[in-house]
Amino acid sequence: MPVYNNSKLLIGFESADDGSVYQISDDLAIINTVDFFTPVVDDPYHYGSIAASNSISDIYAMGGKPISALNVIGFHQGKVTPEIVRNIMLGGAEKAIEAQCVISGGHTIQDEELKYGLAVTGLVHPDKIWRNDSIQSGDILILTKPLGTGAISTALKQGKAEETDVREIIKSMELLNKIPSEILLQKEKYKVHACTDVTGYGLAGHLSEMVGRNDLTVVLEKDKLPQFSRLDNYIKEYAFLPGGFYNNRNFVINKLSGNKNFEDPDYNILFDPQTSGGLIISLSDDDAQNFLKELSQSSYPFEGWQIGYVSGERGNKIKVI
């Protein structure tokens, strides 16, 4: 595609980062990102809240502060009532308020299938952007939310998910990544080497983006992966695997190593598409331990988990142990 080159565009199409970054001045840049999707839960308010949290997450994943957003919504006027639209947008609005992010407008279209999300703008210092592909040898990888929203929400669409399990994933998907991000940003105490959030490409897909530029190897400790309390009832049932699961596995399977059969259901969690997932943060060992301690002492409902590390081995791959 034709590109208008501009030296102020610090991050654009050339990478798989979570948003684009445009420099305004020596000490200020803006992050732009947009995301929207079809309903993952039945309740309109929770759907709006989840979609907003998911959209805003990309700003946190790049070390930024969200400041403003625009609603993006498509619906069929003959099928979707004004009350449903109102509750979707109410869920999004209240989540944006929690993030101290102003929703200043938006756009709606007629659509056969309901869709909602936000186009979000954030602020970041040009020299303090968190990239997703700048891991360093010896880093520890931290994950801030459990895995498994894809399989459980697919079971929900089929009317086969237990209510307690649905409530558990809703609580996680609505949770902003604000607190982990703010802990990492406070007084420049931590040096974040790389960061991204886990969303539609699944854990393995996002890790493949993290190893891309530096030709390093991530060692993923499968038994340390956090998951929702009853995920095993869903993640190994092929009827509950979202369509994106197979795309994710096919995309990344050649980067996986470890003498494993990655088509075995025991490894399905690696490819499950997430909605509004946690942050994967690459930190030095000391910073990782201090961060986990601070996170556990905060009001954030999850303790955070060390899921692996970056080895000195070359190869641009993910070794699962």
Low-confidence stretches: none
Share in β-strands = 25-35%
Domain count: the total is 2
**CATH architectural category of the largest domain:** Alpha-Beta Complex
What is the terminal-to-terminal distance? 40 Å
The backbone outline, from C-alpha atoms, is globular
Strand segment count: 13
Look at the structure and give the mean pLDDT.
96
According to CATH, what is the class of the largest domain? Alpha Beta
How big is the Rg? 19 Å
- Total of helices: 9
Helix percentage range? 25-40%
Give me the CATH fold name of the largest domain: Phosphoribosyl-aminoimidazole Synthetase, Chain A, domain 2
Secondary-structure content class: alpha+beta
CATH superfamily of the largest domain: PurM-like C-terminal domain
Largest sheet: 7 strands, mixed
Spatial strand arrangement across the major sheet: 8-11-7-12-9-13-10
* SSE ordering: EEEHEHEEEHHHEHEHHEEHEE
